[in-house]
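Example S7 (structure tokens).
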């Protein structure tokens, strides 16, 4: 009698351990797949951030020297990178990205204002210095000079956070805790 009970307990224990091990293996495989996708998104994000930084420096150079900036090709599709970031990035990375985008957007707005004022001044006939356009250009350059260093610092901080997360590996990965409001993120992008 005790022999049969022992066999039953042994079989049930083996089944339990096998199911537990299979569940852990499946969870580990899922965790690794998510990590691989996050890693690729982070690598693409760093390439995109480096590109944005280069473009903004070229734009600032144009404002200072009135020379046409170079237009390097985008290494990644930034819209797809942002979609991947929303899907896979940590809360900390998303918060850093949001802050960097705010200051980058402020720089972009100043650059656009500069271009519009520059075009207005260049369109006058005969070409002359329009005092209002000149003042708008000066104001835009001042705002751009204020925002560019902060945007570049925040993008550098973002890349550092990404680098640390990649270096920590999949064992340090946690599910997002903060619910992102995708509509607000998109609305902010449209306004910037």
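Recovered sequence:
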């Amino acid at each position: 009698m005790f022999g049969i009970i022992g066999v039953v307990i042994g079989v049930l224990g083996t089944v339990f351990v096998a199911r537990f091990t299979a569940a852990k293996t499946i969870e580990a495989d899922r965790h690794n797949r998510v990590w691989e996708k996050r890693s690729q998104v982070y690598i693409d994000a760093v390439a995109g951030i480096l590109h944005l930084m280069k473009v903004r420096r070229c734009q600032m150079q144009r404002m200072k020297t009135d020379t046409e900036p170079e237009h390097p090709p985008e290494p990644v599709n930034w819209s797809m990178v942002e979609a991947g970031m929303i899907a896979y990035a940590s809360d900390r990375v998303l918060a850093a990205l949001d802050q960097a985008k705010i200051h980058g957007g402020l720089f972009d707005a100043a650059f656009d204002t500069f271009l519009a004022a520059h075009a207005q001044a260049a369109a006058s006939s005969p070409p002359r210095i329009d005092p209002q356009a000149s003042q708008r250009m000066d104001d835009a350059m001042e705002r751009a000079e204020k925002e560019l260093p902060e945007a570049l610092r925040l993008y550098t901080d973002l890349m550092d956070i990404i680098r640390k997360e990649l270096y920590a590996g999949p064992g340090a990965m946690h599910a997002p805790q903060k619910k992102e409001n995708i509509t607000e993120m998109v609305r902010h992008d449209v306004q910037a």
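Notes on this example. The radius of gyration is 26 Å.
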